[in-house]
Specification:
By secondary structure, the protein is an alpha+beta fold. It has two domains: about 80-365, DD-peptidase/beta-lactamase superfamily (Beta-lactamase, 3-Layer(aba) Sandwich), CATH 3.40.710; about 375-495, Tetratricopeptide repeat domain (Serine Threonine Protein Phosphatase 5, Tetratricopeptide repeat), CATH 1.25.40.10. It is about 45% helix and about 15% strand. It has 18 helices and 13 strands. A six-stranded antiparallel sheet has the order 2-1-13-12-11-10, with helices on both faces. Strands 5-9-6 form a three-stranded antiparallel sheet. Strand 1 and strand 2 form a beta hairpin. Helix 2 packs across helix 7 (about 200-210) and helix 12 runs antiparallel to helix 13.
Length: about 500
């Protein structure tokens, strides 16, 4: 009996020690993650709600900065943020639920449900191809009119699609993968056609109400949403209010949702159960197609992940819409879930939300992680503003050569492009041209950079130079509809019809 009691005490002591070690380990991880995200926040690279879960336990749940800068209201885990394209996994879930109910098949065609859509392509593109971005349809949010006209429309989804969607395929359906908001907009219309209910009502009935997501919905421009975050853009000089967009019409089922950190945790929990889908259909939902894209999620297998010795699967997606960025990532093998909700469009500043998640993963898997660094372009802009663009570019070259390790060069191409647009928006065309010329020297194979320079030359009325750059844009990216339309305009200017 004494030996039994002794063994029991030893076992209890070991269990207590293991529990304390686990708690201490989680506390240490929380401190490291908080320090890292706090630095990103200090460098104007994140502002909003963060939630980190491992093995089903919350490691970190914290908010950084203001939900409303005008009223100085702090963000909370129940603050509602636009989540942009993270909406796609919910749209895909509704399609899979309808499949499970026998109301749709994945090899059905668009025209089986939307007979008004172009017969040329609607009779050949399948539901599966819409879900996996392999339809070949042009991405409507890349159209030149999107930011200047389409975002202000107040139409029904069908009327919006009829008015704006094009059927000029970029490739044969199923042969390639190219991210396409058009596809997910059409999926929302198909959901409405099958159910005979508005998309947002179907979401509520089949997902939100089922798993208790009480603070999630589709944004309506006339609706007052309690506890919602205001959207901002960082413009190098500081934060400013974001531009207007009619979310319900302009993005709809491709990216129209808002949610909270707490509600998104409920969504992740539900994906481990059969509450929304059975095992057979969940397997289809999570299986990647071309480009590692499954149904609303990018799914990748990793061997020896981050040198941890573990083989894992990452499931991730980003979202970005006026004034907001969102990133989610999950690793089912270790029940890891990271959600970042930002109301300053931080995702456009060098892809920093992905960088934050990568750093969080390194902490969770006990691998080496460095503290974040300030974005190089912010430092260079100060020099440009204080002195000149020319001296700023010289300064940039010096920093790249002598202090490269002190700065963050993530998204360098995109940041140069954004900075050029800042000066262009201020009608400082010559300064914008100097910046984009430097960008061309750094990224000679970037179609986006040539597209921007073509626009700058067009503004300067140097149409021959503009034409040359738009031609180069199409050479590098044959699917660039903006370049095609601009070349038509330029040709009409250079060779007007009598």
């Amino acid at each position: 009996m004494k030996n039994f009691l002794f063994a029991l005490l030893v076992l209890l002591s070991l269990n207590t020690f293991a529990q304390k070690t686990f708690v201490n380990s989680n506390k240490e991880k929380a401190k490291k993650i908080d320090l890292i995200i706090g630095k990103y926040h200090d460098y104007n690279l994140f502002n909003g709600s963060a939630l980190v879960v491992q093995n089903g336990e919350i490691i970190l749940q914290k908010n950084y900065g203001k939900a409303d800068m005008g009223w100085s209201i702090e963000a909370t885990s129940d603050t509602k943020f636009r989540i942009g394209s993270v909406t796609k996994q919910f749209t895909a879930m509704l399609i899979m639920q309808l499949k499970q109910e026998g109301k749709i098949k994945l090899d059905d065609k668009i025209n089986d449900y939307l007979p008004w859509f172009s017969k040329t392509v609607g009779s050949k593109i399948t539901i599966h191809q819409l879900l996996t971005h392999t339809s070949g349809l042009p991405n409507y949010t890349d159209f030149p009119d999107f930011k200047t006209k389409m975002v202000f429309e107040n139409l029904s989804g069908k009327d919006f699609a009829v008015k704006y969607f094009k059927d000029n395929l970029g490739f044969e359906p199923g042969t390639k993968q190219n991210y396409c908001n058009t596809s997910y907009y059409l999926l929302g219309l198909i959901i409405e056609e099958i159910t005979k209910k508005p998309y947002e009502e179907v979401l509520k009935e089949k997902i939100f109400d089922v798993i208790g997501m009480k603070n999630t919905g589709i944004e309506n421009p006339k609706q007052i949403i309690l506890n919602d975050a205001q959207g901002y853009d960082f413009d190098y000089d500081g934060y400013q209010k974001t531009d207007y967009i009619n979310i319900k019409t302009a993005v709809f089922s491709a990216g129209g949702m808002y949610s909270t950190a707490n509600d998104m945790r409920k969504w992740d929990d539900a994906l481990y159960t059969n509450t929304l889908l059975n095992d057979e259909n969940k397997k289809i939902y999570f299986t990647p197609s071309l480009g590692d894209y499954a149904y609303g999620l990018s799914v990748q297998k990793h061997q020896n992940f981050l040198g941890s010795g573990k083989n894992v699967t990452t499931m991730a997606h980003s979202g970005g819409i006026n004034g907001f960025s969102c990133n989610i990532a999950r690793i089912p093998e270790d029940k890891i879930y990271v959600i970042l909700l930002d109301n300053t469009r931080a995702g456009k500043r060098g892809g920093q939300l992905e960088a934050i998640i990568d750093d969080v993963f390194r902490v969770l898997y006990n691998t080496k992680v460095d503290l974040p660094k300030p974005l190089i372009i912010f430092e260079v802009y100060k020099k440009m503003k204080a002195e000149s663009v020319e001296k700023g570019i010289i300064y940039l070259k010096e920093l790249k050569k002598n202090k490269f390790d002190a700065y963050n060069f993530n998204g360098f191409e995109n940041e140069l492009n954004r900075l050029a647009y800042k000066f262009l928006g201020e009608r400082k065309t010559d300064e914008a041209l100097k910046i984009i010329n430097y960008a061309v020297s750094e990224f000679p194979n970037s179609s986006n950079i040539y597209d921007t320079r073509g626009e700058i030359y067009f503004n300067k009325k140097d149409y021959n130079a503009s034409k040359k750059d738009y031609q180069k844009t199409l050479e590098l990216n044959p699917n660039n509809d903006n370049a095609k339309e601009m070349l038509l305009k330029i040709n009409q200017i250079l060779s007007p019809k009598n």
